[in-house]
Amino acid sequence: MMHPRQREWLLFDDRGHTWAAHSPELRRQLHCHRYDPDFTSGLVRNLGFVAGRASGSNAAVRLHLDVVSDVALAATFYWLSDANPARVLIDFVGAPRPAEVCSSAGAAIARLVDLTRGRDFGRHVSEKACAVDQLPAKSPLRGLVELWAGTGGRFDRQAFFDYAARRLLKRYLVVRQSAAKGLVIDAIGEGLHVPDRTWFKSAVGRPIEEQPDTSYWRWVARIQRAALHSNSPVVSDIDASIYWPSLGRVRRRYRRLLLPCTTSDGTRLLFSANSSERRVALRGQVA
Questions:
Q1: Coil, helix or strand for 113?
Q2: Which CATH number is associated with domain 123-285?
Q3: Distance, CA of 216 to CA of 112 (rounded, Å)
Q4: In terms of DSSP H, where are the helices of the chain?
Q5: How many whole angstroms separate alpha carbon 14 and alpha carbon 49?
Q6: How many CB atoms lie within 10 A of CB 35?
Q7: From CA 69, how far away is CA 63, in angstroms rounded?
Q8: Can you tell me the distance from the alpha carbon of 249 to that of 184, in angstroms, rounded to the nearest whole number?
Q9: For residue 54, which of 11, 8, 112, 21 has the smallest C-alpha distance?
Q10: N or C: which end of the chain has fewer CB within 10 A?
């Protein structure tokens, strides 16, 4: 019986780039010109790359849990979402561990998130909870809480966006709760201090946990789910070193407000707003 031709492995590197496993340019950049039949596994084992291969409605992912790059994982998540395979085999390089089979791209992404959760995350992000009622009277975040309370927690898109433009320099993020994809980025304010401007378009419509620097965005998603569950405003001071493929780690310090909202059709949203009105310094806890 003839088997369908298998596609070649793709490699997702620690800068978020995707390569064909046979790419001469990749070998040139890595100074690996000689033929090596184990080239793909070597990059996965030693450099934290992720290898992926699709064949028909199936896909396979190969990674080393102890060294895998968060950026390579994010690129893998994009690829899995776009390929949308019916089954995904997760194969492990390194310590002996049985392969796992997931029934969808979403299930595979969730499993990979779970397997890599919490790796040295505390070195890069620190958070300090703040009391909502202790926000200064003239704080733009306090005004936003009052706007939210005045609507009874209903999401008035125009009112929220207008307020964010006037008082918060358009530093906001809207996240929608989706039954199929979990927490999905619905809108991004152009005032957010993000060094990679292409992200503003590429991130919209994609799940929170599939963004670059997966450890950071997994943490963000966890806090957002808790805020939606509590149905109450949440204020925190954040000091984070966030990884962006184009620049490496970039430090951001800000005060963040999360407002759980409901639209007229019952959709659950979270309006996240940032303010730099108070200089946040939790540096002793951040690498």
A1: helix
A2: 3.30.450.20
A3: 15
A4: 24-30, 39-47, 70-83, 105-116, 140-150, 157-167, 199-202, 214-230
A5: 6
A6: 7
A7: 9
A8: 24
A9: 8
A10: N
Nearest in space to 272 (alpha carbons), one of 97, 179, 155, 181: 155
Q: What does 6-59 look like in DSSP terms, one character per residue?
A: PPPPEEE-TTS-EEETT-HHHHHHHT--S--TTHHHHHHHHH--EEEEEETTEE
Q: 102 and 87 in contact (C-beta within 8 Å)? A: yes
Asked if residue 233 has pLDDT above 90, the reply is yes
Average pLDDT for residues 24-52, to the nearest whole number? 82
Q: Is the pTM of this model over 0.70?
A: no
Residue 162 CB neighbours (<10 A): 12
Confidence band of 127 (pLDDT split at 50, 70, 90): confident
* Closest C-alpha to 166, from 275, 279, 258, 280: 275
Neighbours of 29 (CB within 10 A): 12
Confidence of residue 154 (pLDDT cuts 50, 70, 90): very high
DSSP-derived letter for residue 87 is E
- Is the Cβ–Cβ distance between 61 and 32 less than 8 Å? no
Boundaries of every domain in the chain: 10-116, 123-285
Exposure letters 238-262 (e unless 16+ CB within 10 A, then b): bbbbbbbbeeeebebbbbbbbbbbb
Q: 215 burial class (0-12, 13-18, 19+ CB within 10 angstroms)? A: buried
Closest CA to 260 of 236, 221, 233, 226: 233
3-state secondary structure (DSSP) of residue 91: strand
